Amino acid sequence: MSAQQKNLSPAWGIITIVVTLACWTSIPLFLKHFTTLIDGWTANGWRYALSALIWLPVLIWGLSRNSLPKGIWKAAIIPSIFNALGQAAFGLAPYYISPGLMTFSLRLQIVFLTIGAAIMFVSERAVIRSPLFATGLVMVIGGTLA
Prior knowledge:
Blueprint: H1 3-7, H2 10-33, H3 40-64, H4 72-75, H5 77-92, H6 99-106, H7 109-120, H8 124-129, H9 131-145
Helix pairs in contact: 2-6, 3-5
């Protein structure tokens, strides 16, 4: 165990998990709250605009230093299509289902991400085949369906 690992507290892991869960559960609640004030396409527009502003400095930095990997834009096309479809569905979901069902249904994305990773990234296939990963995937599906 390295000196850096000895200084790590399990509290940071717990805090990270709690913050992640808070984010996963609060966003559907906020989106549902605003369904009476704005339509789903407007909500998606604001989400994408904010995301673009957050990523803009990173892109400008990478372009100015010529440090972006070659072919990154071409490589991003197919994942971007799936992401855009998923994000549109996420933004429209509060108009059709409850926030609780939306939150639990979001966990199913892990299954589809796994399938996509197995198709697109050869190096991920070994991880996906591991018994621990398969156990976790079964737990996700079981927890979502329960």
